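Hello again, I could really use a second opinion on something today. My current little project is about how a certain protein chain folds up. You're getting the sequence in one-letter code plus the fold written as C-alpha cells. Here's the protein in full, and shout if anything looks odd to you:
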Amino acid sequence: MRILLTGASGFTGQSFSQLARDAGHLVVALNSDLTDRQTLRQQVLEAAPDAVVHLAAISFVGHADENAFYAVNVVGTMNLLNALTQLPKVPHRVLLSSSANVYGNCEVSPIAENQPAAPVNHYAMSKLAMEHLARTYSDRLPLIVTRPFNYTGPGQAANFIIPKLVQHFAQRAAVVALGNLHVEREFNDVQMICDAYLQLLQHGEPGETYNVCTGIAYTLQYVIDALCQITNHLIKVEVNPAYVRHGEVHHLCGNPDKLHALLAKQGCQLTNPPLEDTLQRMLATAAAINA
C-alpha cells in the first residue's frame, strides 16, 4: 500500500512510518506546508497514494499562537482534502487524526464516540472544527476520523508532561515544577496508536469515528511513583502557577469497544505495552541522549 503521510517528521509520524514500512508498505512523506495550497496540491498529485494518514497539526494545547490552531488544523486540513479530491484515483481510505480533547470535561467515563463534544480550549475546538469540515467531503472521499486519547513514548517533546517527568528523573533532578496535579489521563504507548492507525487503513469503515484508547487512566502521582520505583530516585514536585492551564480537562478516559469490535471481526487486536514498559523505553532513550 502506498501511504501518503502528513506530519511524517513529528513524534507520531516517525513511529507510524517505521511501523508501516516494517509491514511492507511504502510511505510517502508530504513535506509541504499545509497552508501552501499550490505546493500541497502538486505533492499530493505526484504521490498518487492508495491511502492517506493525516497527522500534521499544532498539537500542543499550550501553543502560544491561538490563530495557528485554526490556520493549520482546520484550513490546512481543508487544503489537503481539496487536493485529494483532484486525484485521478481516489485513495481507498483517508485517516484524519483528531483528538479525545474534543470531549472536554465529561462526567461520563469511559467516554464513547457518541458522547457530545464539548471542547474547552482552542486546540480541541480546532480539532472538532476539522471533523465538521471533513464531513463536507464525505461524498467524495472515504474518510475515517480517529480520536486518540493521551499517548507518549520515546521522542515526544519535553513540553508534554510524561517526557518532562522522564527527563527530570533521567537527570536525577531534585525538583520538578508541574501545573495542575489533579488530572487523570490515559497514557498509552505511541506504538499502540500507530498500530491502530495502520489497521484502520485496512479495516476501518469510511464515515466512522473511532476512539483510539485503552480505557485505562492514570493519575500523575501514579506516573511519578512508577518513575521513582524504576529509577530508585525521589523527586520533589512543586506546582508552578504558570503551568496551570485555563480550560484544563481534568479526567479523560475513553471507551475502546467500537475499535476493538471492528478489529475482532478481522481477527486482529492491538499491541498495548504496559505504561511501565513505555517509561522504561523513554528512560533508556533519555539516558542515551544525556550520555
Notes: The chain has a mean pLDDT of 93. Residues 65 and 88 are 37 Å apart (CA to CA).
